[in-house]
Amino acid sequence: MNICVFLSAADLDERYTGPAREFAELLGKGGHTLVWGGSDVGLMKVVADGVQEAGGRLVGVSVDFLAAKARPGADEMIVTKDLAERKAQLLARSDAIVIMVGGTGTLDEATEILELKKHGLTTKPVVLLNTAGFYDGLKQQFRRMETEGFLPVPLTELVFFAEDGVAALAYLEESMGVR
Fold first, then answer.
1. For residue 177, what pLDDT band results from cuts at 50, 70 and 90?
2. 113: helix, coil or strand?
3. I need a surface site. Which of 2, 41, 103, 106 has the fewest CB within 10 A?
4. Element (H, E) at 79
């Protein structure tokens, strides 16, 4: 399975890197392909290293202004002209989406895939990996949106909230009929 992971390129502490490394190892050992932003820095590097070391493939999608940070040695590296094209390529090359911890770029990617899903423009499973409770506030906001009528489909049809990588991957494999 080609699994797109939206995540930070920042250098983060062990409470985020440890679970990311564990999830990456699960992906690689499962024979999955990581489709990611292509950077060889920060959390993106941690996950790419883990997937590659565990035998998985790497498909990076970088962007012109970040090409200098692109990972050498990826199985495939695409460089796009802008962020919109990058997101389109990430989604086109993946079967499922995992949203890990990140900043505004990750949040932008997350809301775009959820908006596409809300309108029926994709049926790809989406998992929000809530490492160390990072997305507790967002989860609460999504529940409020649902309760107050802002979501035309149930939240459970848009995204699965996983507390760890094992639950995230199990959900994806079950959704894709891999198990």
1. confident
2. helix
3. 103
4. strand 76-80
Between CA 167 and CA 170 the distance in angstroms is: 5
Q: Is 98 helix (H, G, I), strand (E, B) or coil?
A: strand
Give the C-alpha separation, 62 to 80, whole Å.
Answer: 6
Radius of gyration of the chain (CA): 15
- List the structure tokens of 145: 């949106």
Question: Which residues lie below 8 Å from residue 119, measured CB to CB, with a gap of 6+?
Answer: none
Measured CA distances, 104 to 2, 7, 111 (Å): 24, 10, 10
Given this model, what pLDDT does residue 179 score?
64
Q: DSSP H helical segments within the chain, as ranges?
A: 14-29, 42-53, 83-92, 104-118, 136-147, 155-158, 165-175
Residues 23, 163: Cα–Cα separation, whole Å:
11
Distance, CA of 20 to CA of 93 (rounded, Å) = 21
As beta bridge partners, residue 34 has: 3, 58
Rounded-to-integer distance, Cα 52 and Cα 178, Å: 21
